[in-house]
Amino acid sequence: MGRLSSRLSVLVAVLFAAGFVALAGFGGTLYWNRVERVGEQEARTELPQLAAQQIPIILGFDYQTIERSRTDAYRLLTSDFRREYEDDTTKNVIPAARERQLISQVNVVGVGMLDAHRDSGSVMVYMNRVLTDKTKQPLYDGSRLKVDYQKVGQDWRIRNITPI
Protein backbone atom coordinates (compact mmCIF):
# COMPACT_ATOMS: atom_id res chain seq x y z
CA MET A 1 0.00 0.00 0.00
CA GLY A 2 2.93 2.37 0.63
CA ARG A 3 4.11 2.03 -2.97
CA LEU A 4 0.63 2.67 -4.29
CA SER A 5 0.16 5.85 -2.28
CA SER A 6 3.59 7.20 -3.27
CA ARG A 7 2.86 6.47 -6.96
CA LEU A 8 -0.50 8.15 -6.58
CA SER A 9 1.20 11.17 -4.97
CA VAL A 10 3.68 11.38 -7.86
CA LEU A 11 0.86 11.07 -10.40
CA VAL A 12 -1.14 13.84 -8.69
CA ALA A 13 1.96 16.06 -8.55
CA VAL A 14 2.68 15.46 -12.26
CA LEU A 15 -0.94 16.18 -13.21
CA PHE A 16 -0.91 19.32 -11.06
CA ALA A 17 2.33 20.52 -12.69
CA ALA A 18 0.99 19.77 -16.19
CA GLY A 19 -2.23 21.63 -15.38
CA PHE A 20 -0.27 24.58 -14.04
CA VAL A 21 1.89 24.73 -17.20
CA ALA A 22 -1.21 24.48 -19.41
CA LEU A 23 -2.97 27.27 -17.50
CA ALA A 24 0.15 29.44 -17.61
CA GLY A 25 0.41 28.90 -21.37
CA PHE A 26 -3.26 29.76 -21.84
CA GLY A 27 -2.90 32.86 -19.66
CA GLY A 28 0.21 33.92 -21.59
CA THR A 29 -1.65 33.51 -24.87
CA LEU A 30 -4.54 35.63 -23.63
CA TYR A 31 -2.12 38.30 -22.41
CA TRP A 32 -0.17 38.39 -25.69
CA ASN A 33 -3.36 38.56 -27.76
CA ARG A 34 -4.44 41.56 -25.69
CA VAL A 35 -1.04 43.22 -26.20
CA GLU A 36 -1.36 42.68 -29.96
CA ARG A 37 -4.94 44.03 -30.07
CA VAL A 38 -4.11 47.12 -28.01
CA GLY A 39 -1.03 47.79 -30.16
CA GLU A 40 -3.05 47.38 -33.34
CA GLN A 41 -5.69 49.80 -32.06
CA GLU A 42 -3.02 52.34 -31.12
CA ALA A 43 -1.56 52.06 -34.63
CA ARG A 44 -5.02 52.60 -36.17
CA THR A 45 -5.45 55.71 -34.03
CA GLU A 46 -1.97 57.24 -34.42
CA LEU A 47 -0.82 56.48 -37.96
CA PRO A 48 -3.40 58.37 -40.06
CA GLN A 49 -2.79 61.59 -38.10
CA LEU A 50 0.95 61.05 -38.22
CA ALA A 51 0.94 60.52 -41.99
CA ALA A 52 -1.11 63.69 -42.50
CA GLN A 53 1.54 65.64 -40.55
CA GLN A 54 4.65 63.97 -41.96
CA ILE A 55 4.00 63.68 -45.70
CA PRO A 56 4.09 67.48 -46.24
CA ILE A 57 7.43 67.57 -44.39
CA ILE A 58 8.88 64.80 -46.54
CA LEU A 59 7.58 65.90 -49.95
CA GLY A 60 7.37 69.66 -49.50
CA PHE A 61 10.38 71.91 -49.96
CA ASP A 62 11.67 75.30 -51.04
CA TYR A 63 14.80 75.37 -53.19
CA GLN A 64 16.36 77.99 -50.89
CA THR A 65 16.07 75.87 -47.73
CA ILE A 66 15.92 72.34 -49.11
CA GLU A 67 18.94 70.96 -47.19
CA ARG A 68 17.55 72.12 -43.87
CA SER A 69 14.08 70.76 -44.60
CA ARG A 70 15.54 67.42 -45.74
CA THR A 71 17.36 67.08 -42.41
CA ASP A 72 14.00 67.37 -40.65
CA ALA A 73 12.53 64.78 -43.01
CA TYR A 74 15.35 62.27 -42.45
CA ARG A 75 14.42 61.96 -38.76
CA LEU A 76 11.00 60.59 -39.73
CA LEU A 77 12.37 57.61 -41.68
CA THR A 78 13.72 54.16 -40.83
CA SER A 79 17.46 53.79 -41.41
CA ASP A 80 17.09 51.70 -44.60
CA PHE A 81 14.54 54.00 -46.19
CA ARG A 82 16.49 57.03 -45.04
CA ARG A 83 19.55 55.89 -47.04
CA GLU A 84 17.42 55.38 -50.15
CA TYR A 85 15.59 58.69 -49.69
CA GLU A 86 18.82 60.58 -48.94
CA ASP A 87 20.51 59.20 -52.07
CA ASP A 88 17.57 60.16 -54.28
CA THR A 89 17.28 63.59 -52.69
CA THR A 90 20.99 64.32 -53.00
CA LYS A 91 21.37 63.07 -56.57
CA ASN A 92 18.08 64.18 -58.10
CA VAL A 93 15.80 66.41 -56.04
CA ILE A 94 18.23 69.01 -54.67
CA PRO A 95 20.02 69.67 -58.00
CA ALA A 96 16.69 69.92 -59.88
CA ALA A 97 15.18 72.15 -57.19
CA ARG A 98 18.10 74.56 -57.32
CA GLU A 99 18.34 74.60 -61.10
CA ARG A 100 14.62 75.18 -61.65
CA GLN A 101 14.08 77.13 -58.39
CA LEU A 102 11.33 74.72 -57.36
CA ILE A 103 8.93 75.14 -54.49
CA SER A 104 6.82 72.11 -53.60
CA GLN A 105 3.76 72.71 -51.43
CA VAL A 106 1.95 69.59 -50.23
CA ASN A 107 -1.55 69.46 -48.79
CA VAL A 108 -2.90 66.17 -47.45
CA VAL A 109 -6.62 66.00 -48.26
CA GLY A 110 -7.39 62.54 -46.89
CA VAL A 111 -5.93 59.55 -45.09
CA GLY A 112 -7.16 56.03 -44.53
CA MET A 113 -5.79 53.07 -42.64
CA LEU A 114 -4.91 50.09 -44.83
CA ASP A 115 -3.29 47.68 -42.39
CA ALA A 116 -2.37 47.86 -38.71
CA HIS A 117 -0.24 45.71 -36.43
CA ARG A 118 1.37 46.33 -33.06
CA ASP A 119 4.71 47.34 -34.63
CA SER A 120 3.84 48.22 -38.24
CA GLY A 121 1.09 49.65 -40.38
CA SER A 122 0.17 51.09 -43.77
CA VAL A 123 -1.77 54.26 -44.52
CA MET A 124 -3.26 55.51 -47.79
CA VAL A 125 -2.60 59.24 -48.19
CA TYR A 126 -4.44 61.42 -50.68
CA MET A 127 -2.56 64.63 -51.37
CA ASN A 128 -2.47 67.63 -53.62
CA ARG A 129 0.82 69.20 -54.55
CA VAL A 130 1.59 72.52 -56.15
CA LEU A 131 4.99 72.80 -57.85
CA THR A 132 6.14 76.29 -58.73
CA ASP A 133 9.37 77.00 -60.59
CA LYS A 134 11.17 80.17 -61.67
CA THR A 135 8.50 80.83 -64.34
CA LYS A 136 5.99 81.21 -61.46
CA GLN A 137 3.53 78.98 -63.33
CA PRO A 138 2.08 76.54 -60.77
CA LEU A 139 1.66 72.89 -61.67
CA TYR A 140 -1.09 71.13 -59.74
CA ASP A 141 -0.79 67.42 -59.04
CA GLY A 142 -2.99 65.03 -57.10
CA SER A 143 -1.53 61.77 -55.83
CA ARG A 144 -2.27 58.70 -53.76
CA LEU A 145 0.52 57.25 -51.67
CA LYS A 146 0.82 54.08 -49.66
CA VAL A 147 2.90 54.97 -46.61
CA ASP A 148 4.34 52.02 -44.67
CA TYR A 149 5.31 52.57 -41.04
CA GLN A 150 7.55 50.62 -38.67
CA LYS A 151 7.73 51.18 -34.93
CA VAL A 152 11.31 51.89 -33.83
CA GLY A 153 11.48 52.02 -30.04
CA GLN A 154 8.55 54.23 -29.07
CA ASP A 155 8.46 56.17 -32.37
CA TRP A 156 6.72 55.41 -35.65
CA ARG A 157 9.07 55.78 -38.63
CA ILE A 158 8.26 55.68 -42.33
CA ARG A 159 9.58 52.45 -43.86
CA ASN A 160 8.48 53.12 -47.44
CA ILE A 161 6.40 55.45 -49.61
CA THR A 162 4.81 53.98 -52.73
CA PRO A 163 2.85 56.03 -55.29
CA ILE A 164 -0.41 54.28 -56.18
Description:
By secondary structure, this protein is α+β, with helices and mostly antiparallel strands. It has one domain (45-163): Nuclear Transport Factor 2, Chain: A (Roll), CATH 3.10.450.230. Helices cover 54% and strands 32% of the residues. It is built from 3 helices and 5 strands, in the order αβααββββ. It has a 5-stranded antiparallel sheet with strand order 1-2-3-4-5. A hairpin with a 2-residue loop joins β4 (139-152) and β5 (155-163). α2 (66-74) runs antiparallel to α3. The termini are far apart.
Question: Can you describe this structure in just a few lines?
Answer:
The protein contains three helices and five strands. The chain has helices spanning 2-59, 66-74, 79-100; strands spanning 61-62, 103-116, 120-132, 139-152, 155-163.
Supply the key terms.
alpha+beta; Nuclear Transport Factor 2, Chain: A; 164 residues; 5 strands; 54% helix; 5-stranded antiparallel beta sheet
